[in-house]
Amino acid sequence: MKDFPYSESKDTRSGFGAGLLELGRTNPNVVALCADLVGSLKMGDFIKEFPERFFQVGIAEANMIGLAAGMTIGGKIPFTGTFANFSTGRVYDQIRQSVAYSGKNVKICASHAGLTLGEDGATHQILEDLGMMKMLPHMTVINPCDFNQTKAATIAIADYEGPVYLRFGRPVVPNFTPADQKFEIGKALMLNEGKDVTILATGHLVWKAILAGKLLAEQGIDAEIINIHTIKPLDTEAILASVRKTGCVVTAEEHNYNGGLGESVARVLAQQLPSPQEFVAVMDTFGESGTPEQLMEKYGLNEQSIVSAVQRVISRKK
Amino acid sequence: MNPFNYDADQLLNVAYQVRRDIVRMVHAVNSGHPGGSLGCTEFLVSLYFRQMTHKPEFDMNGIGEDLFFLSNGHISPVWYSTLARAGYFDPKELATFRKLNSRLQGHPATEEGLPGIRIASGSLGQGPSVATGAAQIKKLNGDDKLVYVLTGDGELEEGQVWEAAMYAAHHKVDNLIWTVDYNGQQIDGPVDAVMSLGNLRAKFEAFGWKVLNCDNGNNFASLIPVLDEAKALSGQGQPICILMNTQMGFGVDFMMGSHKWHGVAPNDAQLEQALVQLKETLNDY
């Protein structure tokens, strides 16, 4: 099992803020909108340096999505910022009609996704957003794993023409991906090659998968770990190549098992390579208040859950 | 500069043909929305044949052009006909309205690339937000042209329109002209019976808008001065709203003034009866 050294832990939302600031300096077409959460979204540096390219919308997310769609007309690249819940479920129809169906070059940037915003509870957590967004034709769906990758993804999506959903979060997590690693939309990243099981992880679960890989190695299980930062388009080639080798797969995500990464992988395997699969995800419930660590443990989204899922899936191999 | 710059007589001439197109289009597929389309014919014809600086050689970004957004997308027939008659595409294509593989979807869309359409609409209440965003980018780009948006009156029951109204006033989006098709009708009956709008003028004024009233949006002599005044009021720190009184179904006697023809197509006999009242001024498609 490879080692993944890191010097500090940081929040992915700060990666977004850093990426947005860099875009402000390098791409004059980038503009930003926020619905009364500039601090939470770490948009302050961009706003300070480029006040004329920032639009405060107030607590009116539906209007924000429509404004952003309109701002593409004239050649700008709008980045919207609010919590993941208010970026998706609250404004699904606005995204569907004014952004996705209209093919608008809007970047919907969503913080505090999943359980890990913690104490605010289920009204502010969302575990359905990947599903909602991946179901929209034309929509690209990205869920990076750490600060560096979120920053790189933020920068990369400005160069891609079309609607994007970029999902990140609040807690600090080990910042282990190389700062100079280029972000390629739709290209899975091999983290650790192995032969016994494929672990496909996204977002905050990527680091948990690395921790699980170490525990598995101690048990003599050689896990292949792949970072699926792009949920749609899914890197089916990388997934199929890995599962052909290992014969089984565990998917890990901070999301409902309905509609998430796991279901996308299951569809690919069902069509092309039927194989045992286990899901590390939230089992169709809402979240609740608690610390991020408590919630990840209670809802089975930690390294121990991944190890158990690996043991189950290996036992199902023929 | 408008590429036509028509006077009232010339506009009336176009309006007759647009009305013929509308009733023929909805009749041909036995579906669509003739009532609101007929009611907004003078408005759309005025914008495209007199008021707006625009290029029928369509460009999505519309830099240096006035832009129009139709928020109440169900009145697509009047927009499609006006665009075709203004040269955005061949009027023959109007025959494909609502048919399989057509660029003329039931509600306006960009997916099939119909020239003149910049955003999909149909699910109501989204147009004012889109138009406001486009207007702000015109300012950011140093483009002094205007952005027009049309909504229905029943559509004002959607909360998002008031989010946009609040925002546009706060941000002083004064290159935006929002016209409300104030025909007093919606699908389930008169607006006053379904969900009364109260004092609409006072509502918009309270939100910080300049409000103009058009007594008769089905009369060019009443409409054009109001459109000119709206344009003259732009650039003064406030967005502009036109409350445009119209009659649903205007121009076809048995469709006028009732919500009954909101989303119902005429049958063969009714089409004949309608066409008798509408001169063929340009060639039928």
UniProtKB/TrEMBL annotation, chain A:
Cofactor dependence: thiamine diphosphate
Pfam families in the cross-refs: Transket_pyr, Transketolase_C
Domain Transketolase-like pyrimidine-binding: 10-175
Keyword annotations of the record: Thiamine pyrophosphate
Coiled coil: none
Family: Belongs to the transketolase family.
Protein name: Transketolase family protein
Organismal lineage: Bacteria, Pseudomonadati, Bacteroidota, Cytophagia, Cytophagales
TrEMBL record, chain B:
Tree of life domain: Bacteria
Sequence ranges assigned to domain Transketolase N-terminal in this UniProt record: 19-273
Keyword annotations of the record: Thiamine pyrophosphate
Iron-sulfur listed as a keyword: no
Keyword Nucleus found: no
Reported cofactor(s): thiamine diphosphate
InterPro entries found in the cross-reference section: THDP-binding, Transketolase_N
Protein family: Belongs to the transketolase family.
UniProt-recorded name of the protein: Transketolase
Organism expressing this protein natively: Rufibacter hautae
